[in-house]
Design a protein that fits this description.
The chain has about 210 residues and is of the alpha+beta class. It has seven helices and eight strands, in the order αβαβαβαβββαββαα. Strand 4 and strand 5 form a beta hairpin. The longest helix is centred in the C-terminal third of the chain and has 17 residues. The protein is globular.
Length: about 210
């Protein structure tokens, strides 16, 4: 009985189940990406952005993490529109990092190690194209590194099922509404945070301790 109660709570607390709470429209300009020898940008989609944001905020060399939407056709989409699946966007995070402190390959390792890259358009109870696994690259170097890393994972057969993560040229990235930013730290006692995000952070701290702040 307790198991069924916990399962129902988990389903209710899926990221998508929160969609009805957020209906407001904020005008958001897409973020302009500028990179140099001291700062680079990486953009990953791996399920609910509340999860991936919380993970990468703890990584050494990461200067900023922004939750947002990328890969769709609608300009300035809202959370409700993205959750409908009609815009084509993925929930994603844009990471600004110092490559002298953390390598792009390290970010890839953490990304693949903290979500399931073998489930198509799904992470746990979060289902839909907005929750797809995707790496958005800003240079041919990033593209080659991502493809090489995926090929290595496949060669080593680290996953029972094939990896479905897409590697795609980055398009306009729209920051999500303000209430989505730093979501876990602002809402750590919320059900979804406790049942979904907290276990991911525990895994991060256990297996990637040397890469954390």
């Amino acid at each position: 009985m307790r198991y069924l109660l916990l399962l129902s709570l988990f389903i209710f607390q899926s990221c998508h189940s929160q969609e009805g709470k957020f209906k407001s429209k904020e005008y958001k300009e897409p973020i302009q990406v500028a990179m140099n020898e001291n700062l680079e940008v990486a953009t990953f989609a791996g399920g609910c952005f509340w999860c991936t944001e919380a993970i990468f905020l703890e990584v050494k060399g990461v200067k900023k993490v922004v939750s947002g939407y990328i890969g769709g056709k609608t300009k300035n989409p809202t959370y409700s529109e993205v959750c409908s699946g009609a815009t084509g966007h993925a929930e994603a995070i844009q990471i600004t990092f110092n490559p002298n402190e953390v390598a792009y390959e390290d970010l890839l390792e953490i990304f693949f190690g903290t979500h399931d890259p073998t489930t198509l358009n799904r992470q746990g109870a979060d289902a839909g194209t907005q929750y797809r696994s995707e790496v958005f690259y800003y240079s041919l170097v990033q593209k080659e590194k991502a493809e090489r890393y995926i090929a290595l994972l496949e060669k080593e057969k680290l996953y029972k099922n094939p990896i479905v993560t897409q590697v795609t040229s980055a398009t306009e990235f729209y920051p999500a509404e303000a209430y989505h930013q730093d979501y876990y730290n602002q809402n750590s006692l919320q059900g979804y945070c406790q049942m979904v995000i907290a276990p991911k952070l525990e895994k991060l701290r256990k297996y990637y301790k040397s890469k954390l702040k």
